[in-house]
Amino acid sequence: MTEADLYTIVKVARNEDLAEQIGRDRYFDLVDHNKVRSFRIKRWTPFNLFKEEVAKEFGIPIQFQRFWLWAKRQNNTYRPHRHVKPQQEAQPVGRLRAPKANDAELNLFLEVEHSRRGLPKIPPTVCSDDILLFFKLYDPLKEELRYVGRFYVKADGMPVDILAKINRCDPVDKMVTFRDSQLGNGDIICFQISLEDESRGQCGHPNVPSFLEYVYHHQGVTHVYFAVVTLNLPRVLKF
User: Fold this and answer.
1) Distance of alpha carbon 73 from its chain centroid, rounded?
2) What is the pLDDT of residues 19-68, one digit of tens each?
3) Is the pTM of this model over 0.70?
4) Which of 12, 50, 223, 225 is 20 to 30 Å apart from 29, CA to CA?
C-alpha cells in the first residue's frame, strides 16, 4: 500500500463557489470541484474530526455544518444527492464516498444556513418529502446567467408556493407539483426576468432555452442533459 492509498482528497464546494463559477465558466452544472477548497485527510479519520478541520478553515462551527454527498445520475448529471446523517459522522472519511465513486476522492457540498444577521445557524430538519433545489436567474437584456441561491421545497408543493422567495417573477399559471415534475435533491431551476414586448427585439437570446443552446454550441460542451419543465415562471428549466 502506497502513501497515496492512505489518504482521501476531500473537495468541499460551498455556496460561495457556486456563486463565483456559475455564469462565468459553469452554465449547465453547479460547480467544478477542481476549483474548490480541498483537504488531504487520512482515510480512517472519523468524519466528525474532519468537520473540525472545516471549522478551522471556513470559520463555521461544526454544529452549523451539513454536508451533502454528490452522485452521478443515469443522465450523466452530477448533483448533491443525499446529506450525511449524524449517525454516519463516526464513520471514516474513506467510507462515505458514493457508490462507484473514485476511491481517492470525496466530493461534498457544505450547506450552511444564516440568520437575518448573517450569522450561521442550525440547518433545518430534512424530512423525507423535502427537496433541496438550486436556483439560477437569467437576465435576457444582459444575457447573463447567475446563481441566486438554494432552498427546500416540499415534493407535493408547487412553484406558486415559493414565489414569495423568488423576486421579479410572474404568477404561475400551471399547477404542477415538484414531484410530478420529477425534481429531486440537487436539481436546478432556471427562471428569468420578465420582458416587455418592446424589449424582446433587443435581446439576442430572449429566454433561457435559447441562451443555453447558444452556450452549448459555442463552448465545446461534449454532453449535457436538460429538459423543459412546463411551468410558467415565465420559463422554467430543469437540467
Assistant:
1) 14
2) 999 988 787 789 999 999 999 999 999 999 999 999 999 999 999 999 99
3) yes
4) 50
Grid coordinates belonging to 210:
435559447
**How much of the chain is helix, strand and coil, in % rounded to 5?**
25, 30, 45
Helix (H) or strand (E) holding 199: helix 197-200
Which stretches does DSSP call E strand in 99-211? 105-111, 113-114, 120-121, 130-139, 144-154, 188-192
* Residues of the chain scoring pLDDT < 70: 1-4, 98-103, 163-175, 193, 195-202, 219-239
Q: In the block, which residue shows the cell 444582459?
A: 142
Task: Kindly state the cell numbers that stand for 215.
Answer: 452556450
Rounded to an integer, what distance in angstroms lies between the CA atom of residue 140 and that of residue 208?
A: 8
CA distance 194 to 186: 25
CA dist., res. 84 & res. 186, Å (int): 14
Strands 66-72 and 78-83 turn out to be antiparallel
